[in-house]
User: What shape does this take?
Amino acid sequence: MKIAVIFGSHRIGGKNAEIETAMRQYANVFDFDFIHMADNKVESCTSCHCCAKTGRCVLPQTKDDTFQEIFDKMVTADAVFIISPVYASIPSRLTALFERMTSVLFDPGVMNTDHNPLLNKKTAIFSYCSSGICDDAPIKLIFDKFVMKNYRFDRTTYPYLNHEQNPKARYDNNITAYVIDTLLSLQP
Assistant: This one.
């Protein structure tokens, strides 16, 4: 199973490195594609609406803009894990990725249809802070907007892989344990 793992942090190392090291212990079971937003830059959407004609973002992919590469990895993966620290609820590079996803899915008319390449994708979204596991609802609500056919503003309706009601208590506030347990739920 191929899993695109997106680390939303603007920093390399720290909690991301701890989680990635723990996930790599299962490289014999899963094919990971680790994507660090700290190593990637995604420009803001220019609202050119050209993606309506092509279904792809027409901004050129460069070392200064890797949106299409990241999006393609999400589409071709069997599962997507988004792991992000909480600052200003969502880090700016992850926000830019989500913003561009909106245009690429909305402008060609696939956002709220069965043709959305992310619809029903096995997805887990985790949020953490210096004290451990944080509320992932804000990021999940925003991601819902890009993949759901029946988006709601008041609660998430997507069947996320990590749906624990009180993960802080169950995992003793250990985000790495929460990520690994969710990962292992995908084993055949």
The first helix runs from residue 14 to 24. The mean pLDDT is 88.
